[in-house]
Amino acid sequence: MKIGILGAGIVGVNTALQVQNEFPNAQISVIAEGFGNETLSSGAAGIFRPGTSFSAGNDEVTQKWITDSYDFYNQILHSESAFEAGIMQVSGYIFSSKSPSITKNHFLEKLLPIYRPAGDDELEICPSPEGSSAWKYGAYFQTMVIESSSFLPWGLKVFESRGGETKQRRVEAFTDLLGDGYDYVINCTGFGSKWLCNDRKLVPIRGQVYKVKAPWVKMFYYGDYDTYIIPGSTTVTLGGCRQFDSYKTEVDRYDSASIWDRCTSLLPSLKRAELVREWVGLRPYRDPVNSFNMGTCGYGVTTSPGSAIHATKALKELIRSGKVDNSGSTTAIMIVSKL
Ligand SMILES: Cc1cc2nc3c(=O)[nH]c(=O)nc-3n(C[C@H](O)[C@H](O)[C@H](O)COP(=O)(O)OP(=O)(O)OC[C@H]3O[C@@H](n4cnc5c(N)ncnc54)[C@H](O)[C@@H]3O)c2cc1C
């Protein structure tokens, strides 16, 4: 059996690993135009924190994706591969001056070992936002950061060591894959699906961040909706913004100024940070998320191992029954002979 995984971002790599676990004797290829730093995934801060509005269809499936993902990453975190895979434990705070609901997360409260309200003294750790005397609400929690810049090469190395192969190639239409001998192809092209599947429901939510060197920052900090400071192994990510249906891939200097101002207000020591680069990414947003792999929006790093397990089960069922269940208009799994 020959299986193609189209896309080599976090969704493609996690899907390739899961499919390989399930079908160890299959010939599996990851086919993608861009690998590693050429993917959207490589720029994400990679914090394990789903948004409270994220939905994989219904509450049960959504919680399962998130729990399966957490278990997958947590297992690597406690193994000798943690460093090479770019996975580390982090803890920190989310503060709000507006509403206690901003500091809550029903997915994580059920899952993480520590997720608790911040005490009064903790609400004073960061300077309060302009116009108020202190942060009103806060929570402290412990989670993980998964840096795709390390995870993607590590994941593909594991995949190749088990006999998988990678092919650099742009696919203009799924029919391009006819003649390559694949029995099944799983589409993991992220925002690329907009063009490949002509999916009007897939829209970008533009994000912009700074990557800075500030090795003294060891915890993450969120302030209300869109201000975040997330440490990685070599840089700290400062964000951000969420701009619906914006296709602008250049750095916007007004966004830069706003992010810098908000992050240095939240953590003044960042004024001494050394700028490494600025980065813009288009989050692939889809309501609803397609069957498993498209429309992960701002949470693809968090949810992709779980969605990959789900996709692998669907492939198994497809092989058994011969029926494709592609709910949503973006094609997720294809029987190549039927293209
Ligand atoms: C600023 C910002 C911060 C973020 N922070 C986080 C975070 O902290 N935590 C989190 O969980 N998520 C975060 N995200 C979201 C996360 O980055 C995405 O959900 C995730 O990267 C999507 O992964 P993907 O594999 O679907 O897409 P991609 O990484 O874009 O990969 C798509 C792959 O498909 C290939 N491809 C596309 N079209 C074609 C084609 N026609 N032919 C061949 N190959 C093709 C590409 O080359 C690539 O290999 C953030 C996003 C942004 C913008």
UniProtKB/TrEMBL annotation:
Q: Which domain of life is it from?
A: Eukaryota
Q: Where in the cell is it found?
A: Cytoplasm, Cytosol; Peroxisome matrix
**Record protein name field:** D-aspartate oxidase
Q: Which residues form a coiled coil?
A: none
Q: Which cofactor does it need?
A: FAD
Among the record's GO biological process terms, what is one? Answer: D-amino acid catabolic process
Q: Sorted alphabetically, which InterPro entries does this protein's record hold?
A: DAO (IPR023209), FAD-dep_OxRdtase (IPR006076)
**Molecular-function GO term, any one:** FAD binding
Tell me the protein family, please: Belongs to the DAMOX/DASOX family.
Keyword Oxidoreductase on entry: yes
Cellular component GO terms held in the UniProt record: cytosol; peroxisomal matrix
Would I find NAD among this entry's keywords?
no
Q: What positions does the domain FAD dependent oxidoreductase occupy? A: 3-312
